[in-house]
Amino acid sequence: FLGQAARPAPRVTTTQKCVRTNDIENVGVTKRHHTFFEMLGNFSFGDYFKQDAIKWAWELSTEVYKLPPERVWVSVFREDDEAYDIWTKVIGVDPSRVQRLDEADNFWASGATGPCGPCSELYYDFHPERGTEGATLEDDD
Fold first, then answer.
1. What is the pTM of this model?
2. What's the pLDDT at 94?
């Protein structure tokens, strides 16, 4: 990540089996915090950037996994106007289904000195009949 060595590939994807440790106090409190979960990731070493990553996440979710686009919500880091604009203007997600969240939810970090930055997350709407008004991604109800 410091550019001191050549990478074996310009882009990689991962499937990470994760044990929750940094916010274990949320396990059992919310429906979305589990002690063990699997996280999908994609990483670019200068080969592609945010717009392509977002396009591919949407394609995987809606075209490969066949999730109905109208049931997918998006979160972005509160200050990440670039990601917000890509989701709403390029991908076409209704702005009422894109929410800006703080560091706890949308700023990825790997330790105190490792790689870090804003991130987006996708959420599946299990209750579309409730609409978007007043909805929050931080509330499991």
1. 0.79
2. 96
